[in-house]
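So, who can interpret the following?
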Amino acid sequence: MTAPGASPRIIIVSGPSGSGKSTLVERLRALAGTMFSVSCTTRPPRATESPGKCYDFLTEAEFERRIQRGEFLEYARVFGKHWYGTPRKWVDEARRLGTDLVLEIDVQGARQVKQSLPDAVAVFIVPPSRQDVEMRLRARGQDSDQAIARRLERARQEMDCWNDYDFVVVNDDLERASDELRSIVVASRCRRRDNDERFRKILETFGGN
C-alpha cells in the first residue's frame, strides 16, 4: 500500500479486445491494498452491465462537458463512435486511501497515462493467438461479424505496441497469468523510488543517512 496522502502507485492493465484482461483484473481484486477505477463511456449498457460497476454511462453532451473541465486522466473516441475515459478523481481517491490504483484501459489510454504519469507500471496482456481472440469475441455473442472483424483489425494494430510496456503477460493459462499479474503488482511495491522515505528512516536507526 501507499502511505495516505502520497502519490498513489498506478498500475495500468491493457491489451487487445479479447485478450482476457478483464478476467485477470477481476481476479486481482482479491489483492489487499488495491482499488479499481470505473471508466466512463457514452455507449449504451449491455444487458449484463450495471451502471457504476464496470462503467458509468454518460450522454455525449455530459462526456464532452467533462472533457472541457479537464476531469479525465485519459479519454478517446473508439472506432469513431463512443467515448471512453478514466476520471482523474480515482487518483485523488487512491491518494486519500493510501492504496494502489489499477486502471483497466486500452492501448491508447495507456499511452496517455504514461505520458502524464511516467512512473505508472504498465502491463500488456497478450492473447495466445489471433484465433483465440476471435473465438473469445464470438463466444461473447455481443458483436456482429462486421464488428468482430473491426475488433480483430484493431487487435492486430495494438499488438505492435507491446514494446511500450514495462511487463508483458501471455494469457494462455488463466491461473498462471493471474499469478504473474499479481506478482507484478506486489513487486512494484518494492521499487526503491517508491520507498526512499521509508528506507531512509530505517537507515537512521542504524546510524546511516
Q: What stands out?
A: Residues 10-37+99-205 form a domain with the Rossmann fold fold (CATH 3.40.50.300). The mean pLDDT is 89. Strands lie at 10-14, 34-36, 39-41, 55-57, 72-78, 82-87, 100-104, 121-126, 167-170.
